[in-house]
Each structure stands twice: as C-alpha cells, then as structure tokens.
Amino acid sequence: MMSQMPRLSACPSCEEPLESGDRFCGACGYDLSAVPARPEDNPTIALNGAVPAQGAPAAVYPEAPRVPPAGAAPGAAAPPPGDGVRFDRHPQHEGYAPEIYRTQPDDYPLQAPDPRVSAEPAAPAAGTGTAVCVACRAGRVDDDGYCENCGHAQPRERDHMEQEYGPVAAVSDRGLRHHRNEDAFAIGTTALPDGSPAAVAIVCDGVSSATRPDDASAAAAKAASETLLAALPRGTHPQQAMHEAIVAASHAVNSLAEEPATAREHAPHQNAPACTIVGAVVTSGLLVVGWVGDSRAYWVPVDRGAPPARLTEDDSWAAQMVAAGLMNEAEAYADERAHAITGWLGADAYELEPHTAAFKPDRPGVVVVCTDGLWNYAEAAEEMARVVPLDAAAQPLHSARVLVGHALDGGGHDNVTVALVPFPAVPQGAGSA
To answer: What is the per-residue pLDDT for 12?
Structure first.
C-alpha cells in the first residue's frame, strides 16, 4: 500500500511554505516523501474537568481525529532488549548487556565538586593569571581543564545551565556521577496570528551509549525550538507544529552521523549520535506535548486539590511490559532493564514515530518538562506534584532550581534537566520577579 504523504505546512529543510500535495519543496527541492507521515496521535482532551469556556485556541484549532491509541494485544510479550532497544548508559565493554546495571551502577565517578557547594567559577591564581581548582583551591588548572594538584576536572559551560525567557525557565545540571552533561534544552515565547501568547520548551537527553550524545541533544533542542517558534506565528496548529518540530530535530541528529568523518574512529563500537526529546507548547487555552523516548512532561495544577497528571508515555522496555500487562509499573521500573529505550532520534533509529497529544486544562497550572534524571526521583505524577513548589507558575526559575536540587539530593546519578512552563501562557516579560 502506498504510504501517505506527510501533512507539512513548511519544508523541514528550508522552512519555506508548502502547498497541499507537494511532493518536492519548490524552494530547495527537498523530497517530502522522505519525511514520515504524521501518525494518528492522541486527540485533544480535557484535564481536571470540563473543557474551559475560555481559550480561543479551542475554536481556532480543530481537534485531532478521535482515534484510540494503538495498544498492545492482551498478553503480548514485550520484545527483549536487542534490535530496536538501546540502553541509555555508557558502555563498559562492547555490547549493551543488562549486566552493566549490576556491575557498573555508577558509570562515572564524581570528577568535580557538588555544584550546590562550589557553583562559582574558578578564580585566577594570585599573580599568575591562571585559574585555581574549584575543588582543592590550590592547584593550577591546565589547558585541558584539569587540576595539576588533585586532578579534578573543572566545571564546563554545560555542567550547569540556567535560562529564563519571559514566563518560561529551565535549568540543566551535570549531576554528581556523570563526567559531562549530555542533556540540552531550548525555551522561548512567541505570538499566534491573533496576537495571543505562546510558550515553548524543549528538553533532550543524549543517549550515553552513542557517539557524541551531548552534540545530539543540543542539535535536537535547537532544531525543534526553531521550528516551533517559526511555525506557530504562521498559524500552524500547535500539535502539527510539534510533530514537524520532532521531525526537524530528527534530521538535525541524523546529520551528525555524517560529520565529521573521523568521529567514529575514536569509538568504533558505539552507535550513531542519538537522543530523546520531549517538548511542550502552551497557549491561552491549549497545552500540546510531543516526545520520542523516555523524557517526560507532567501537569501540576496550581490548585493542588486537583489531580496532577503525567502527559507522556515512555518509549521504553518498562512501558512496554506495563502496556502488555506482564508487569505493574512498580515492578517494571524496578527491573534493571527498565531504562532500555525503544524509541530515540538518531540515524540508526529503526523508524521515527513522534508522539503528540493536546490537552485543555480547566484551571491554571504548570507543565514540567524533564529528563529521567529528575523523574527517577519523582516518578509518579503525585510525587512530582509534591516536589514542585506551590508558586512554580509565578516563580519558574526558582522552582526549576528546586527540582534540580531534589534530584541532586536524591543522588544525582544522571544528568538532570527541567523546564517549567506556566499555563495558561502569559505574555513575554511576565514571570519571575
């Protein structure tokens, strides 16, 4: 059967507008059939009650077709780790056997001080103009970024990142065990054609068993956010824009496998650059999420009397076991194979299957967009709601710092990244005082 042409409003290569039914972009000649057709994603549904009367987007944007999500057949066995499954851990040897979880639970030693204690940059040594180690406060830092006295690696730019953009904020930290931060984020705000505000947050987690995971996550976050911020003002439905953003992020990560040509020489046993992705678009009355992999989005209402919710479903071994009815969630996520992911962005991904869903919350709240470095320490929606500060919608940057601190206090075994987006969207300039 002939595959359906993707429904794109703009070329994913040059971003020029497309006409319905185009097979090639008229501006750059890009073959649109190479872009996967949009899947039958989740319909728009209400959160915490009835669809609100307010919220122009409910009328402006037609709802997606109400097609029930495809579920696993009752009793179907989930595939064992192997083809189509990747462990998001740094390989200790060739192959990615589950034994890595038992033999090397902490795959990187702590090579720099706890960022909560020594967050300030290295100070220059008196009279030398060179930096002093942030750990021992005595040794000189060499050109490679290591202390000549105690050998500690010094903090790098991506070890701890914070950004606030109007009402949206994000924080990313290397954590206490990994030697580098392989997470990335991108946030921004824009206006819809009617002038109402829209906020965007993208969070990506580099797959540690792949080559250049930090480059993959950075490329994906940048491409996805740029696509969203360009598509939304043109009137593209936020759910369609999110789908196109994930496709654009996939192309950006795929391109890393082609350059530089010598990148694989240093790690021939590793896979192509890869990452997971999760994103959120918030307007005055609509909340859209999109994802591939096991990074997550949560809904936490300001009124904590209303229930919170997890908005995404992991592409992982554990999620497949739960969906197949072979384990409950507690059992699945306690298994050593839980974080074997079955979906990712990368040139060696078997098939790109972006997931998107739209929601219409009936009350104010905040969207938590995060990597597993955070949700490992607050997995259930109720647990996440308990650690999100009550004033998170008004103070998103402070609250993002609190959430990162929660993960570090829990052990900081992974990179941790979180973005907070208040709902409903508020104009740029509002937000943290």
So the answer is: 56
The Cα–Cα gap between 193 and 189 comes to: 13
Strand bridging mode 345-346 / 340-341: unpaired
HSE, side-chain direction, 13 A CA sphere, residue 296: 22
149: left (phi over 0), alpha (psi -120 to 50) or beta: alpha
The winner for highest mean pLDDT among 106-110, 259-263, 320-324 is 320-324
User: Rounded to whole angstroms, how far apart are CA atoms 86 and 274?
Assistant: 10
More confident residue, 92 or 321: 321
What is the 3-class SS of 293-328, one letter each residue?
A: CCCEEEEEECCCCCCCEECCCCCEHHHHHHHCCCCC
Contacts of 314-318 with CB under 8 Å at 24 or more apart are 314/341, 315/276, 315/291, 315/341, 315/342, 315/343, 315/344, 315/353, 315/355, 316/340, 316/341, 316/342, 317/78, 317/81, 317/85, 317/341, 317/342
Tell me how long the chain is: 433
How do residues 4-34 score in pLDDT, each as one tens digit? 334 455 665 666 666 656 667 777 776 655 5
Closest CA to 16 of 29, 7, 5: 29
Contacting residues for 203 by C-beta, under 8 A, at least 6 apart: 170, 183, 184, 185, 221, 277, 278, 279, 295, 369, 370, 371, 417, 418, 419
What is the C-alpha separation between 42 and 66, in angstroms, rounded?
Answer: 7
The string of pLDDT tens digits covering residues 217-274 is 999 999 999 999 999 999 999 999 999 999 999 999 999 998 664 455 455 556 799 9
| Amino acid identity at 84 | G
User: Comparing C-alpha atoms, which of 242, 217, 186, 164 is closest to residue 344?
Assistant: 217
What's the mean pLDDT when you consider all of the chain? 78
- pLDDT score for 195: 95
Contacts of 237 (CB under 8 A, 6+ apart): 61, 62
CA–CA distances in Å: residue 213 to residues 186, 207, 257, 345, 413:
16, 5, 11, 11, 17
Q: Are strands 183-191 and 197-206 parallel, antiparallel or unpaired?
A: antiparallel
Q: Which amino acid is at 423?
A: F
Write out the two tokens for 78. 């989930």
3-class state of residue 207 by DSSP: coil
